Amino acid sequence: MKYSASDCLSKCKARFYHEHCGCSPFVYNIDTEFPSCTPLETYECTKQYIVVNKDETSEEFHWPTCEECIVECERWEFNAANSYGNGFSNGALRWLNHYNPEWTTPHIRANFLTINIFFRDMSYTEYKQVQAMSMTELLSDMGGNMGLFWGMSVLTLAESLIYIWKISWIAVSKQRRDYMSEKKKRDEKEERETEETIKSFKQLSAAQLAQIAAAQAQYAADGAPLTPPPKAICRRTI
Q1: Domain final residue, candidates 43, 61, 79
Q2: pLDDT, mean over the chain
Q3: Is the pTM of this model over 0.85?
Q4: What is the bridge-based pairing of β-strands 59-61 and 51-53?
Q5: Taking a C-beta distance cutoff of 8 angstroms, is the pair 5, 71 a contact?
């Protein structure tokens, strides 16, 4: 038998009735797999295990969840219906009488019947089950949220990993700690020397700076390398 969600639900309810009451109503026991319940047994079992009284005037039916009964991928469903009319129209009676003059109107109404077979709705409903989010969309969503709330990107993540690795290396290696301490001292020393030099140059007057520039230009014209004046001159000038 081809799978259908309605048949699966019927079998699920049939198993529920059989597990609790030892039988199953014939409307759910479509495969006659379980003994059929009598109307009284169906009523008593439903009242005991399915119907839940909310209050004195209302009830609820708690059916089994039947999670295994998923919607089928393709289903064809035809609904049959009957409709009745008042018989043949006047045009149909005239056509039949013209077709056979012996068929009178009373004869036609008493012996003829019209059956129309047609599609009530010239349309169909299609259900599709699609993936809510692809892997690309998931990664894009995660990256967008991280960039929005954390200001994080791939480069930031790589830099964070490198920073954690360096911190861990310093914490584990004594040699690395000593090296970083010496490097910090050298940097501080160079920074102090630079600040002192800048401060000394700021104290020089414009004439002294012009004299130094002229001396450097004279050295360059004579073919000597561009070197600062002798230390004695520098000390006397400063």
Answers
A1: 61
A2: 80
A3: no
A4: antiparallel
A5: yes
